[in-house]
């Protein structure tokens, strides 16, 4: 089969949150220690992301906006062994085709920055500018040239909430990166970037949720799991505080959910659900992240192993003295 066909064909850009997800992943891939995200009108009018990563070489900027030009997939096997978050090489191209984009970037080797504008896929201008090493991308007027897609958007406040969720997922799975989020001009939080999940959770999810979280840690064979869970007395009436990650990616997964909830069984009241942030690290070839183009749904080669490692990790954590 041709490699291109193995790449999920789904649209990368469905709403402001998908733009934010792709751009944040690019910043992390670029080794940024600090990232600031700011949105206006739920991200429809403006998404601005600044990082202190490597920057993009001036000669390479146009290429970065060409679909698949930067794809890291050369042979079908590569789909199973990708270690950067981005690999399709189509995010920037897709975003630039449906918005007005302004990129300002500078690498260590450059004397000044380059400001590059591209709107609806058309290069508009390129001129010298100023900024420290790193990249700033401004995405304005999303879907201005595709009214049909614009119609599928929910109201700005809902789109803003999808964006907020996306940023939270990235901030929690990358506590080593300081993530700052400004929503409609108001600072929401800054994570310290100290590498501690607990301090990222405190900044993102608040004091109420983070106060008495229990540390969780387990290794079984090729699976390693770390994270934090709520004590049984802090369980809630919804699953909104369940966050699962596999190899640094946020996922929704019934097996991980079931493993966690089964381990809590008997400790919580009826109709309550545990909260937790569970980070699973495992060999890339035992998980298929390409079930869904947005990479949120996953499929496991050995479903039972996943249940077991989660279940045991949570059981162990709950058995700690003082919980
Ligand atoms: P992918 O991430 O799949 O390679 P993208 O379209 O998201 O594709 O990005 C294209 C390329 O642009 C990346 O491979 C990277 O080289 C460069 N790039 C994008 N964003 C940044 C950034 N914030 N910092 C440095 N380089 C970036
Ligand atoms: Mg990318």
TrEMBL record:
Domain DNA mismatch repair protein S5: start-end pairs: 201-319
Superkingdom to which the source organism belongs: Bacteria
Function noted in UniProt: This protein is involved in the repair of mismatches in DNA. It is required for dam-dependent methyl-directed DNA mismatch repair. May act as a 'molecular matchmaker', a protein that promotes the formation of a stable complex between two or more DNA-binding proteins in an ATP-dependent manner without itself being part of a final effector complex.
Family that this chain belongs to: Belongs to the DNA mismatch repair MutL/HexB family.
Designated name of the protein: DNA mismatch repair protein MutL
Organism: Faecalibacterium wellingii
Gene: mutL
Section covered of the full-length record: 9 to 331 of 719
